[in-house]
Write a structure and sequence with these properties.
Strand 7, helix 5 and strand 8 form a beta-alpha-beta unit. Helix 3 crosses helix 4. Strands 6-7-8-3-9-10 form a six-stranded mixed beta sheet, sandwiched between helices. Strands 13-12-11-14-20 form a five-stranded antiparallel beta sheet. It folds into two domains: 226 residues, Rossmann fold (3-Layer(aba) Sandwich); 126 residues, Beta Barrel (OB fold (Dihydrolipoamide Acetyltransferase, E2P)), CATH 2.40.50.100. It contains eight helices and 20 strands. Helix content is 23%, strand content 36%. It starts with 5 loop residues before the first strand and ends with a strand. It is of the alpha+beta class. The longest helix has 18 residues.
Protein backbone atom coordinates (compact mmCIF):
# COMPACT_ATOMS: atom_id res chain seq x y z
CA UNK A 1 0.00 0.00 0.00
CA UNK A 2 1.22 3.49 -0.88
CA UNK A 3 2.03 6.01 1.85
CA UNK A 4 -0.85 8.12 0.50
CA UNK A 5 -4.04 6.42 -0.64
CA UNK A 6 -5.09 9.46 -2.73
CA UNK A 7 -2.74 12.14 -4.07
CA UNK A 8 -4.14 15.25 -5.75
CA UNK A 9 -1.41 17.27 -7.48
CA UNK A 10 -2.12 20.65 -9.12
CA UNK A 11 -5.60 19.60 -10.22
CA UNK A 12 -7.64 22.18 -12.13
CA UNK A 13 -11.01 21.77 -13.84
CA UNK A 14 -12.38 24.33 -16.27
CA UNK A 15 -15.79 24.41 -17.92
CA UNK A 16 -15.25 26.89 -20.73
CA UNK A 17 -14.13 30.15 -19.12
CA UNK A 18 -15.29 29.05 -15.64
CA UNK A 19 -12.74 27.45 -13.29
CA UNK A 20 -14.55 25.04 -10.97
CA UNK A 21 -11.41 23.63 -9.29
CA UNK A 22 -8.31 25.81 -9.19
CA UNK A 23 -4.84 24.26 -8.79
CA UNK A 24 -5.67 21.97 -5.84
CA UNK A 25 -3.05 19.75 -4.17
CA UNK A 26 -3.31 17.51 -1.08
CA UNK A 27 -2.89 13.91 0.07
CA UNK A 28 -5.25 11.51 1.85
CA UNK A 29 -3.84 8.72 4.02
CA UNK A 30 -4.90 5.05 3.92
CA UNK A 31 -7.93 4.33 6.15
CA UNK A 32 -8.60 8.05 6.63
CA UNK A 33 -12.09 9.56 6.83
CA UNK A 34 -11.62 12.74 4.81
CA UNK A 35 -14.22 15.47 4.19
CA UNK A 36 -14.49 18.03 1.40
CA UNK A 37 -16.51 20.85 2.94
CA UNK A 38 -17.74 24.10 1.46
CA UNK A 39 -20.72 26.10 0.22
CA UNK A 40 -22.64 25.23 -2.94
CA UNK A 41 -20.60 25.89 -6.07
CA UNK A 42 -17.19 25.78 -4.35
CA UNK A 43 -15.96 22.83 -6.49
CA UNK A 44 -16.09 20.01 -3.95
CA UNK A 45 -18.40 17.71 -5.96
CA UNK A 46 -16.44 18.40 -9.17
CA UNK A 47 -13.27 17.36 -7.34
CA UNK A 48 -14.94 14.17 -6.07
CA UNK A 49 -16.14 13.37 -9.60
CA UNK A 50 -12.58 13.76 -10.92
CA UNK A 51 -11.36 11.26 -8.32
CA UNK A 52 -14.12 8.92 -9.50
CA UNK A 53 -13.19 9.45 -13.16
CA UNK A 54 -16.57 10.99 -14.03
CA UNK A 55 -14.83 14.26 -14.91
CA UNK A 56 -11.41 14.67 -16.54
CA UNK A 57 -9.00 17.25 -15.01
CA UNK A 58 -8.01 20.16 -17.25
CA UNK A 59 -4.60 20.05 -15.57
CA UNK A 60 -2.82 18.12 -12.83
CA UNK A 61 -2.84 14.48 -11.78
CA UNK A 62 -4.69 12.12 -9.45
CA UNK A 63 -3.08 9.00 -8.01
CA UNK A 64 -4.86 6.27 -6.05
CA UNK A 65 -2.65 3.93 -4.04
CA UNK A 66 0.34 5.16 -6.03
CA UNK A 67 -1.25 4.51 -9.44
CA UNK A 68 -1.82 7.36 -11.90
CA UNK A 69 -5.51 7.58 -12.83
CA UNK A 70 -5.03 9.73 -15.96
CA UNK A 71 -5.97 6.98 -18.45
CA UNK A 72 -8.04 4.85 -16.07
CA UNK A 73 -11.80 4.68 -16.84
CA UNK A 74 -14.22 4.94 -13.90
CA UNK A 75 -15.19 1.26 -13.88
CA UNK A 76 -11.55 0.18 -13.54
CA UNK A 77 -10.61 2.50 -10.70
CA UNK A 78 -10.30 0.97 -7.19
CA UNK A 79 -13.15 3.14 -5.94
CA UNK A 80 -16.90 3.06 -5.50
CA UNK A 81 -19.36 5.88 -5.02
CA UNK A 82 -22.51 6.50 -2.98
CA UNK A 83 -24.78 9.24 -4.32
CA UNK A 84 -27.13 11.64 -2.57
CA UNK A 85 -30.16 10.02 -4.25
CA UNK A 86 -29.12 6.46 -3.22
CA UNK A 87 -29.67 5.26 -6.85
CA UNK A 88 -31.16 1.98 -5.58
CA UNK A 89 -32.80 -0.03 -8.39
CA UNK A 90 -36.56 -0.05 -7.61
CA UNK A 91 -37.27 -3.33 -9.50
CA UNK A 92 -34.64 -5.36 -7.61
CA UNK A 93 -34.79 -6.66 -4.06
CA UNK A 94 -32.12 -5.75 -1.52
CA UNK A 95 -29.88 -8.75 -2.23
CA UNK A 96 -29.96 -8.19 -6.00
CA UNK A 97 -29.25 -4.47 -5.54
CA UNK A 98 -26.20 -5.19 -3.41
CA UNK A 99 -24.93 -8.00 -5.62
CA UNK A 100 -25.49 -6.19 -8.94
CA UNK A 101 -21.95 -4.81 -9.20
CA UNK A 102 -20.46 -8.23 -8.50
CA UNK A 103 -22.70 -9.85 -11.10
CA UNK A 104 -21.74 -7.45 -13.92
CA UNK A 105 -18.08 -7.92 -12.95
CA UNK A 106 -18.41 -11.63 -13.70
CA UNK A 107 -18.15 -12.91 -10.11
CA UNK A 108 -19.55 -16.48 -9.91
CA UNK A 109 -23.08 -16.60 -8.49
CA UNK A 110 -22.00 -18.98 -5.75
CA UNK A 111 -19.51 -16.37 -4.50
CA UNK A 112 -21.95 -13.46 -4.64
CA UNK A 113 -24.45 -14.71 -2.02
CA UNK A 114 -21.98 -14.92 0.91
CA UNK A 115 -20.50 -11.54 0.07
CA UNK A 116 -23.98 -9.99 -0.05
CA UNK A 117 -24.80 -11.59 3.29
CA UNK A 118 -21.59 -10.21 4.77
CA UNK A 119 -22.39 -6.73 3.41
CA UNK A 120 -25.88 -6.85 4.92
CA UNK A 121 -24.40 -7.68 8.32
CA UNK A 122 -21.90 -4.85 7.90
CA UNK A 123 -24.64 -2.22 7.44
CA UNK A 124 -26.96 -3.78 10.04
CA UNK A 125 -29.61 -5.05 7.63
CA UNK A 126 -29.59 -8.82 8.24
CA UNK A 127 -32.81 -10.55 7.24
CA UNK A 128 -33.87 -7.89 4.73
CA UNK A 129 -32.35 -9.47 1.62
CA UNK A 130 -35.71 -10.22 -0.01
CA UNK A 131 -37.33 -6.84 0.61
CA UNK A 132 -38.03 -4.40 -2.22
CA UNK A 133 -36.77 -0.79 -1.98
CA UNK A 134 -40.31 0.61 -1.53
CA UNK A 135 -40.58 -1.49 1.64
CA UNK A 136 -37.58 0.24 3.20
CA UNK A 137 -37.19 3.49 5.11
CA UNK A 138 -34.90 6.24 3.84
CA UNK A 139 -32.18 5.18 6.27
CA UNK A 140 -32.45 1.55 5.17
CA UNK A 141 -32.22 2.50 1.48
CA UNK A 142 -29.09 4.50 2.28
CA UNK A 143 -27.59 1.45 3.99
CA UNK A 144 -28.38 -0.65 0.90
CA UNK A 145 -26.52 1.89 -1.24
CA UNK A 146 -23.56 1.72 1.16
CA UNK A 147 -23.58 -2.08 1.14
CA UNK A 148 -23.65 -2.14 -2.68
CA UNK A 149 -20.62 0.16 -2.76
CA UNK A 150 -18.68 -1.77 -0.11
CA UNK A 151 -19.40 -5.28 -1.39
CA UNK A 152 -16.87 -4.80 -4.21
CA UNK A 153 -14.19 -4.05 -1.59
CA UNK A 154 -12.90 -0.77 -3.05
CA UNK A 155 -9.75 0.92 -1.78
CA UNK A 156 -11.60 4.25 -1.60
CA UNK A 157 -15.29 4.93 -0.97
CA UNK A 158 -16.60 8.26 -2.29
CA UNK A 159 -19.72 9.72 -0.65
CA UNK A 160 -21.49 12.63 -2.37
CA UNK A 161 -23.77 14.32 0.21
CA UNK A 162 -25.02 10.84 1.22
CA UNK A 163 -27.15 11.96 4.19
CA UNK A 164 -28.71 15.19 2.91
CA UNK A 165 -32.04 13.54 2.01
CA UNK A 166 -32.57 12.22 5.55
CA UNK A 167 -34.38 14.00 8.38
CA UNK A 168 -32.25 15.57 11.14
CA UNK A 169 -32.52 12.78 13.71
CA UNK A 170 -31.87 9.98 11.22
CA UNK A 171 -28.99 11.97 9.71
CA UNK A 172 -27.33 12.20 13.12
CA UNK A 173 -27.79 8.45 13.65
CA UNK A 174 -26.33 7.68 10.21
CA UNK A 175 -23.32 9.91 10.90
CA UNK A 176 -22.40 7.68 13.84
CA UNK A 177 -23.07 4.53 11.81
CA UNK A 178 -20.84 5.77 8.96
CA UNK A 179 -18.02 6.44 11.44
CA UNK A 180 -18.32 2.97 12.94
CA UNK A 181 -18.60 1.39 9.48
CA UNK A 182 -15.46 3.14 8.26
CA UNK A 183 -13.54 1.98 11.32
CA UNK A 184 -14.85 -1.58 10.83
CA UNK A 185 -14.03 -1.94 7.12
CA UNK A 186 -10.76 0.01 7.39
CA UNK A 187 -10.83 1.69 3.98
CA UNK A 188 -10.46 5.33 2.96
CA UNK A 189 -13.69 7.35 2.95
CA UNK A 190 -13.99 10.70 1.16
CA UNK A 191 -17.22 12.55 1.85
CA UNK A 192 -18.52 15.72 0.19
CA UNK A 193 -20.80 17.84 2.36
CA UNK A 194 -21.90 21.43 2.93
CA UNK A 195 -22.96 20.57 6.50
CA UNK A 196 -20.31 21.77 8.97
CA UNK A 197 -21.64 19.65 11.85
CA UNK A 198 -21.56 16.55 9.65
CA UNK A 199 -17.93 17.10 8.67
CA UNK A 200 -16.81 18.02 12.20
CA UNK A 201 -18.46 14.97 13.78
CA UNK A 202 -17.27 12.34 11.28
CA UNK A 203 -14.01 13.27 9.56
CA UNK A 204 -10.43 12.71 10.67
CA UNK A 205 -9.46 15.73 8.55
CA UNK A 206 -11.44 18.34 6.65
CA UNK A 207 -10.55 20.37 3.56
CA UNK A 208 -12.53 23.62 3.43
CA UNK A 209 -13.11 24.83 -0.14
CA UNK A 210 -14.10 28.22 -1.51
CA UNK A 211 -14.25 29.32 -5.15
CA UNK A 212 -12.44 26.20 -6.36
CA UNK A 213 -9.54 26.53 -3.92
CA UNK A 214 -8.59 24.75 -0.69
CA UNK A 215 -8.60 27.37 2.07
CA UNK A 216 -7.49 25.11 4.92
CA UNK A 217 -6.98 21.42 5.72
CA UNK A 218 -6.95 20.39 9.37
CA UNK A 219 -8.41 18.08 11.97
CA UNK A 220 -11.90 19.13 13.13
CA UNK A 221 -10.79 20.59 16.48
CA UNK A 222 -7.96 22.60 14.92
CA UNK A 223 -10.23 23.86 12.15
CA UNK A 224 -12.82 25.11 14.63
CA UNK A 225 -10.48 26.55 17.27
CA UNK A 226 -7.69 27.79 14.99
CA UNK A 227 -9.09 28.85 11.60
CA UNK A 228 -6.51 30.50 9.34
CA UNK A 229 -8.80 32.88 7.45
CA UNK A 230 -11.94 34.92 7.91
CA UNK A 231 -13.81 32.68 5.45
CA UNK A 232 -12.98 29.46 7.36
CA UNK A 233 -13.82 31.04 10.74
CA UNK A 234 -17.16 32.29 9.41
CA UNK A 235 -18.07 29.08 7.56
CA UNK A 236 -17.25 26.64 10.39
CA UNK A 237 -19.85 27.08 13.12
CA UNK A 238 -21.10 30.36 14.55
CA UNK A 239 -18.64 33.18 15.18
CA UNK A 240 -18.42 36.86 16.07
CA UNK A 241 -16.12 38.75 13.69
CA UNK A 242 -14.67 42.10 14.74
CA UNK A 243 -12.69 44.22 12.28
CA UNK A 244 -9.80 46.31 13.55
CA UNK A 245 -6.31 47.64 12.96
CA UNK A 246 -3.01 46.53 14.49
CA UNK A 247 -1.38 49.26 16.56
CA UNK A 248 1.56 47.34 17.99
CA UNK A 249 3.11 44.01 19.04
CA UNK A 250 4.70 43.41 22.45
CA UNK A 251 5.41 40.46 24.74
CA UNK A 252 3.44 37.87 22.75
CA UNK A 253 0.39 40.14 22.46
CA UNK A 254 -0.94 42.12 19.51
CA UNK A 255 -2.59 45.43 20.26
CA UNK A 256 -5.63 46.04 18.06
CA UNK A 257 -7.94 49.03 17.85
CA UNK A 258 -11.59 48.00 17.46
CA UNK A 259 -14.22 50.68 16.88
CA UNK A 260 -16.46 50.83 19.96
CA UNK A 261 -14.33 48.43 22.00
CA UNK A 262 -11.14 50.46 22.13
CA UNK A 263 -7.64 49.01 22.14
CA UNK A 264 -7.51 45.28 22.90
CA UNK A 265 -4.49 43.08 23.66
CA UNK A 266 -4.79 39.62 22.07
CA UNK A 267 -2.27 36.74 22.42
CA UNK A 268 -0.78 35.91 19.02
CA UNK A 269 2.31 34.16 17.70
CA UNK A 270 3.88 35.51 14.52
CA UNK A 271 3.46 38.77 12.68
CA UNK A 272 0.40 40.95 12.26
CA UNK A 273 -0.05 44.34 10.67
CA UNK A 274 -2.64 46.61 9.11
CA UNK A 275 -6.30 45.58 8.93
CA UNK A 276 -7.16 42.33 10.74
CA UNK A 277 -10.22 40.53 12.06
CA UNK A 278 -10.83 39.06 15.49
CA UNK A 279 -13.00 35.95 15.80
CA UNK A 280 -14.73 34.86 19.01
CA UNK A 281 -17.02 31.84 19.24
CA UNK A 282 -20.40 32.61 20.95
CA UNK A 283 -19.97 29.79 23.49
CA UNK A 284 -16.74 31.38 24.75
CA UNK A 285 -18.64 34.50 25.81
CA UNK A 286 -20.33 35.29 29.13
CA UNK A 287 -23.29 37.62 29.61
CA UNK A 288 -24.59 39.33 32.72
CA UNK A 289 -26.15 42.52 34.05
CA UNK A 290 -23.15 43.45 36.19
CA UNK A 291 -19.85 44.74 34.88
CA UNK A 292 -17.17 42.01 35.06
CA UNK A 293 -14.53 42.59 37.73
CA UNK A 294 -11.53 44.29 36.15
CA UNK A 295 -13.35 45.18 32.93
CA UNK A 296 -11.16 44.81 29.83
CA UNK A 297 -7.62 43.89 30.87
CA UNK A 298 -4.69 41.91 29.58
CA UNK A 299 -6.53 38.64 30.21
CA UNK A 300 -10.16 39.53 29.50
CA UNK A 301 -12.28 41.67 27.20
CA UNK A 302 -15.67 43.16 28.02
CA UNK A 303 -18.26 45.40 26.38
CA UNK A 304 -21.54 46.96 27.47
CA UNK A 305 -24.62 46.69 25.29
CA UNK A 306 -28.32 45.99 24.96
CA UNK A 307 -30.07 42.69 24.16
CA UNK A 308 -31.79 43.02 20.78
CA UNK A 309 -32.83 39.40 20.08
CA UNK A 310 -33.16 36.12 21.90
CA UNK A 311 -33.59 32.66 20.34
CA UNK A 312 -34.39 29.45 22.25
CA UNK A 313 -33.05 26.16 20.81
CA UNK A 314 -33.83 23.77 23.67
CA UNK A 315 -30.35 22.82 24.81
CA UNK A 316 -29.04 26.34 24.23
CA UNK A 317 -30.25 29.89 23.88
CA UNK A 318 -28.65 32.54 21.69
CA UNK A 319 -28.68 36.17 22.78
CA UNK A 320 -27.74 38.98 20.43
CA UNK A 321 -26.25 42.09 21.99
CA UNK A 322 -25.70 45.45 20.31
CA UNK A 323 -22.73 47.21 21.88
CA UNK A 324 -23.33 50.63 23.40
CA UNK A 325 -20.66 52.67 21.64
CA UNK A 326 -20.44 51.36 18.10
CA UNK A 327 -23.49 49.16 17.51
CA UNK A 328 -21.44 45.97 17.03
CA UNK A 329 -23.72 42.92 17.10
CA UNK A 330 -22.42 40.09 19.27
CA UNK A 331 -23.93 36.60 19.56
CA UNK A 332 -23.68 34.86 22.93
CA UNK A 333 -24.46 31.15 23.40
CA UNK A 334 -26.01 30.18 26.76
CA UNK A 335 -26.24 26.53 27.80
CA UNK A 336 -29.60 25.56 29.34
CA UNK A 337 -28.19 23.24 31.99
CA UNK A 338 -31.42 22.26 33.80
CA UNK A 339 -35.12 21.92 33.03
CA UNK A 340 -35.98 24.86 35.25
CA UNK A 341 -33.35 27.20 33.82
CA UNK A 342 -34.87 30.67 34.13
CA UNK A 343 -33.98 33.36 31.65
CA UNK A 344 -33.21 36.39 33.82
CA UNK A 345 -32.25 38.56 30.83
CA UNK A 346 -34.83 39.85 28.38
CA UNK A 347 -34.82 41.80 25.13
CA UNK A 348 -34.05 45.44 25.82
CA UNK A 349 -31.99 44.77 28.97
CA UNK A 350 -28.65 46.48 29.47
CA UNK A 351 -25.94 43.80 29.80
CA UNK A 352 -22.20 43.20 29.82
CA UNK A 353 -20.57 40.70 27.48
CA UNK A 354 -17.11 39.38 28.32
CA UNK A 355 -14.63 36.73 27.19
CA UNK A 356 -11.05 35.63 27.79
CA UNK A 357 -8.48 37.32 25.58
CA UNK A 358 -6.97 33.88 24.96
CA UNK A 359 -10.26 32.79 23.32
CA UNK A 360 -9.85 35.49 20.67
CA UNK A 361 -8.55 34.35 17.27
CA UNK A 362 -6.59 36.88 15.20
CA UNK A 363 -7.09 36.54 11.45
CA UNK A 364 -4.71 38.28 9.07
CA UNK A 365 -6.85 37.57 6.01
Amino acid sequence: MSENMVSIEGVTKRFGSFTAVDDVSFNIKPNEFFALLGPSGCGKTTLLRMIAGLEIPSAGSIRIDGQDMSDMPPNQRPINMVFQSYAVFPHMNVADNIGYGLMVSGIPKADIAPRVSQALEMVQLPGLASRMPDQLSGGQRQRVALARALVKRPKVLLLDEPLSALDAKLREQMQLELMHLQQKVGITFIIVTHDQDEALSMADRIAVMESGKIRQIAEPGALYEDPKSRFVADFIGKVNLLDGKVTGISGGNVSIEIAGLGRLAVPHEGTAEGAVSLAVRPEKMLIGKDEPAGGSSGTSISAKGRVTDWAYYGDTSHMYVETEQSGLRLAVNIQNHTRDTVNTIDIGDSVWVSWAASDTILLNS
